[in-house]
Amino acid sequence: MSVSPTLHPIMFAGTGSDVGKSIIATAFCRIFKQDGFRPAPFKAQNMALNSYATPEGLEIGRAQAVQAEAAGVACHTDMNPLLLKPQSDRTAQVVLNGRPMGHQDAYSYFRKEGREVLRNEVHAAFDRLAARFNPVVLEGAGSLAEVNLRDTDLVNMSMALHAHADVILVGDIDRGGVMASVYGSLLLLTPEERKRVKGILINKFRGDIRLFESGVKILEELCGIPVLGVVPYYHNIYIDEEDSVALATKSVEAERGRVNVAVVLLRHMSNFTDFNMLERDPRVHLFYTNNVTELAKADIILLPGSKSTIDDLCELRRNGVARAILQAHRNGATVMGICGGYQMMGMQVLDPDREEGEVELMPGLGLLPVVTRITGEKVTRRVTFCREGDEATPLEGYEIHMGVTLPQDGATLQPLNRMQGGEPEGCRVDDRCMGTYIHGILDNPSFVDFLLRPHADRWTTEEAAAFDYHRFKEEQYDLLADHVRRHVNLPLVYQILTHDDD
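and the corresponding structure tokens:
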């Protein structure tokens, strides 16, 4: 039986944001797993509204949960010890080792004072991972050459130096200027930092790669390190995305022969990956919108999670979306809320301690007989449950929310779900009006069947087979790994990761 060699930690750092670091790191997590190693992802500091609950019931960024899934290991807070969840343009909730530590504005957060405490925490998290996994696949944030933040950096080159990681610089050729951004990024590094950068990877190429062969040679001559590959822009591979930037571009045209499902676009939308399985279901046409005309075409309207429920609810009233949702429901559409969307569907949202802002009370949509009070305590846990009335089918999901939702005075609450311990969860008026705190509820095929059942006349018999989302995701990770393998000099990567040059 052969023993896999010990590999250096590898970091994928970028010339900027959105160059594809997360996807490349995900690909390498799967590649290393396929090649007999036991990899684990790591991002010291992540900023995202899309988070996930670990098996221990703690919170990390969704991207690292996806990378762990690609690596075939359970996610853990050590993989993302510091998570920033934007609350507004200037403030964010700080989540350390899976637990919220309060809110800070950007200026306060990036001060030098107290920075060593956070630095020690993220270093300790990495050290624990490195003792258990081989290799650790690190991801940087933004640009690795943000020299104005060098003294307070926790996630890019300071982390690479602590980890003794081999850094691969990822550049996005699709946005243009890739040669200047790669070369300029390296020039801005200190000699010690530049020594850790062992290769360049060009991402999101479109067209005939042969046309960039001279560009590869020029980059290698300028930078003095190899270009490890030119990875083309891929199509028809579906990996959970880290942010919601592209959601509004998905088709909004209603389709005949499928159930039209509209996800309401919110300004503070979180956990939009709740809807990925629906998007792949052949019975469903799913789109994201806050356009009142498009909402009127929907058979099902889904209200997603929000990092700022009251502010988003206020915006829905201002832009006419709240009225459009109520009208669509009167016309026969199903309305379902998840987490913050569930809170919005009730009679009132109360915030007496002003956890979210200055507004202490906001009327809800009035679709569910519940009232929510926002609290400072965050609930984060993985859950096993069943839908009320279908106790024979166990379901799984997770909760991440601040707030307690209770029946309105005098109201009798019909729960949507029943937790493993027997306690009720969520609220259901009927099969076309319901809400829940459980993220990932739509990853359960039997619940999707229940949601779509009132609209079963919209699809043909051939489309009715259950969709295996777990198998689909595993196939996508393999397709991504194959795509990157074809365009990266993997033997050279392994040579770099085993060559002792320190």
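(Above: one complete record from the training split.) Residues 10-238+475-498 form a domain with the Rossmann fold fold (CATH 3.40.50.300).
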